[in-house]
């Protein structure tokens, strides 16, 4: 917005209001606030004079304290904030700390709960995979034993062979009564 005489009047009125509230005296008038070195970028400095002595200026510490006390009212009058309306040598008011919409403990609880659920799912899935693998191995063994057919050697049926144990040659068995001795 354009800075004109009306805006200057409003600023002087707000400073006079701040001085009246701070000192509890009704002696400060709009005419006691003087603006100096006003530029196009709305930059200036101001002085507050004492109405009883008309020439003497009010100490800077009192003006700073009055503006600090009424800073929110001054910002609201111009629809500005501490970032847009800056007073040199007067620190800005601290805004209240921002509180998140979700409490921190709830976020931590959610993360821990997700980790626990992921661990349980991992254990269940790995158990199912191990069980399937174990069943598959046992069925392969059964299938391998079924594939071994009964073979006939010299007209005599041979028992299923255990491939891992090897083959026992019955000829060299000492106590075999089926065969005739020599």
TrEMBL record:
Regarding the membrane, this protein is recorded as: Single-pass type I membrane protein
A GO BP entry is:
positive regulation of amino acid transport
Regions crossing the membrane:
104-128
Subcellular localization, as worded in the UniProt entry: Cell membrane
Residues in domain Collectrin-like?
Answer: 1-182
Q: Has the keyword Cell inner membrane been applied to this entry?
A: no
Q: Which domain of life is it from?
A: Eukaryota
GO cellular component terms listed in the entry, alphabetical order: extracellular exosome; plasma membrane
Species this chain originates from: Emberiza fucata
**Phosphoprotein as UniProt keyword:** yes
Query: What is the name of this protein?
Result: TMM27 protein
For this UniProt record, the keywords arranged alphabetically read as follows: Cell membrane, Glycoprotein, Membrane, Phosphoprotein, Signal, Transmembrane, Transmembrane helix
